[in-house]
Amino acid sequence: MADRESEALSRELGPLMLAVYGAGTILGAGIYVLIGKVAGEAGWWLPLAFLVAALAAGINGLVYAELATRRPSAGGPAAYVHDAFGIPLLTNLLGWMIVTTGVVSAATIASGFAGYAGQFVTMPDWLPELVLLLVLGALAAAGAKASAWFMAITTTLGVIGLGVVVWAAFGRTPGPALTGYTAQLPPLWDLARMSGVLTAAFLAVYAYIGFEDIVHLAEEVRRPSRSMPFAILSAIGIAAVLYVVVSVAALTLLPPDELFDSEAPLVAAVRAGGLPGWPLALLSLWIIANGALAQIVMASRVIYGLRRRGGAPGWLARIDARTGTPLIATLAATAVAVGLALFFPLEALAAATSLVMLLVFAVSNLALIRLEARRPEAPFDVPVAVPWIGLVICIGLIVGRFAIQGSGH
User: Fold this and answer.
1) CA–CA gap between residue 293 and residue 355 (Å, rounded)
2) How far is CA 1 from CA 92, 221, 300, in A?
3) Structural domains counted in the chain
4) Domain of 375: which CATH number?
5) Is 2 contained in some domain?
6) Distance, C-alpha 341 to centroid of its chain
């Protein structure tokens, strides 16, 4: 079903703002919320787990960059799969899987937000989770430009916070601190340890979720053929460097088991380094919040895209005349995220998001393989091998995760 012109999304974003938006989406929950859970699986090889996850994200980021220039659509992968295979059931199923990752991820981030909020005041976790998601739902409903400015400001604060962690670890004695960390590294070539790193990498994929949110803003960005590749690859690159540096820094301050046990792992690390924890806890609240905002925005845009192919009811995906956003879809995504945050633990939510997202990545790679066979040229063209490599990585992480669970490691 074609949308009426009056219900088109507004093109308000440029490449730099889009890149900042994507980087902020990735950095939010990834390093502030999830680092302790990943450390619990990878141990002292925590940075390696983030590197493996970065490889998966980078390959899939290249695929998304080409797909987004071939088909700039708010529907993202659902639109790409529709172009490649033309199977409505598959298209709609994938679209709703992406919506699921958005609302589950927003719930995951809200759960992490509660841990950091608890550094300031004692309260039941459900209260900050509820307040956060309701405020962000209102902001998401206000429009893409308002959301993007919020992302830019909070991303800046979040990067400053990561700088505090690095300073606590290396600011005074960088050489001895790094030497002390490397001395703790156990041999990697042990089945149980390698299994732990693989499990951690599967979980750490969640930490890179956010770059794919960029493609859902394709109808709200100027010159998507140039803006999309720049924004996607810049966001992944920035996140990968920061994740590795900060994970090494955290491990020089606290051992993996203490990071795992903490509800606010980076705050605990900074305190162990002799710095007060409250400034970082305050900065953390802002960067965590922006990740949840991006997921709500993404979910609502996918619902809007699904309407075109009959995958979502018109009333749910309708663009509001005042805000220029799919208002009802935004409110619905917020409500579901609230329910999930209140009733499911953080690690279970993150693992579920990683699984669904890897499945979406795998199908997106298949879509590009099919589209490349039909029409090799694209505004941003990646080597033919890239989607095949991305497909193998996604399947490998999924199979490896279930094989490890089945073996009891």
Assistant:
1) 21
2) 14, 23, 18
3) 1
4) 1.20.1740.10
5) no
6) 17
Q: At what angle do helices 88-117 and 327-343 cross, to 10 degrees?
A: 60
Other C-beta atoms lying within 10 Å of the C-beta of residue 190: 10
Q: In this structure, what are the phi and psi dihedrals at residue 13, rounded to the nearest 5 degrees?
A: -110, 145
Report if residue 389 sits inside a domain: yes
| Measured distance CA(224)–CA(380) in Å, rounded | 10
Query: Roughly how many angstroms between the first and final C-alpha of the chain, as a whole number?
Result: 49
* Host domain of residue 269: 9-407
CB atoms within 10 A of CB 129: 24
Write the single-letter amino acid at 120: F
Which residues sit opposite 221 in a β-bridge?
A: 13
Measure the CA angle with vertex 214, ends 142 and 386; round to 5°.
Answer: 170
Q: Is the residue at 84 inside a domain?
A: yes
CA–CA separation, 240 vs 259, rounded Å? 20
Provide the residue-wise pLDDT of the chain in tens; the chain has 409 residues.
334 433 555 566 667 778 877 777 787 656 787 888 899 999 999 999 999 999 888 998 999 989 988 888 777 788 889 899 988 888 889 889 888 888 888 888 888 788 778 878 888 888 988 999 999 998 888 876 777 778 778 878 888 888 999 999 988 777 677 777 888 888 888 778 888 888 888 888 878 877 877 887 777 777 777 788 888 989 899 889 999 999 999 999 999 999 999 888 999 999 998 899 888 888 888 877 877 888 898 888 888 878 877 788 888 888 887 777 888 999 999 999 999 888 887 677 777 877 888 898 899 999 999 999 888 888 888 898 999 999 998 898 888 777 766 555 5
Is 4 among the domain residues?
no
Q: Two tokens at 293?
A: 């905002």
Can you point out the beta strands (E) in 88-217? none
72, 78, 80: which is closest to 91 by C-alpha?
A: 78
Tokens of 123: 């309260």
